[in-house]
Amino acid sequence: MKIWMNGKFVGGERAKISVFDRGFLYGDGVFETMRSYAGKVFCLDEHVRRLSSSMKAVRIRPPYSEKRLKDIVRKCLEVNKLKSAYIRLAITRGEGRFGIYYTDAFTPNVVIVAKEFGPYPGWMHSQGISACVVGVRQNEYSPVSYVKSMNFLNYILARFDAKDKGCDEAILTNTRGLIAEAATSNIFLVKSGTIIAPSLDTGIVPGITRDVVIRIARKMRITVKEKKVTRSEMLGADEAFLTNSLVEILPVTKIDGRRIGEGIPGEFTKLLHISYQKEVIRQTLS
Predict the structure, then answer these.
(1) Residues 222 and 189 sit within 8 Å (Cβ to Cβ)
(2) Is 2-116 assigned to CATH 3.30.470.10?
(3) CA-to-CA distance for 232 and 234, rounded, in angstroms?
(4) How many helices and strands (H and E) does the chain possess?
């Protein structure tokens, strides 16, 4: 594996970050996770645009232009001879002294990893997964909640909590007890033919796949409502599914031990997943 670090490719065994890097010290950095199909990164423009927005939100000086970052990502696929790949683009504030605030002119560290994509187990899409609401909360008043930050402890602890309860995935509520998102994905519900998504102001990362699904659904003339969602409303849904760039659209058939709808992947979930894959093909061939 060849990893791109700060302007050059290095072997995986030589890819090192200083112990004084603020990403290591404080989780002071941002990242994007992407997926390529047939050698083309899906929604690359949107991912790099969100990365730029994240850097602006946490005041990291952009080390490269958006065009340059996209070119490097494509080069990573080429150098590693990858078609179907997982790509992670990470940018930290850089190396610095101990302490959370300095006015030093930090030089950001940029690391891009691309590796062969390993498909998820087939049963996850054919049967659906289980999820549960956990005690870890998302702070909708914090700007960090809306950023793809390296500080992932909230989500890590949420996933631990879910696994302790025998569930596959964690669902986080915000400080007001409203449904926010899952540990590594956005959540959608289906009720009486309407797609329901927790609104962005509930404290969620604005998912790239979330946007694609909403756009696809509206193009198909399916009603989509972005709104505040309660736990009881979620448990009363006909269908539920999760979205992120790697898993695409993943059915959730049980939440908090209760069956969602018929307890099998729903028709809207399956239809949207097929439509999503068609969008992937369309973009890949364009």
Answers:
(1) no
(2) yes
(3) 5
(4) 8, 15
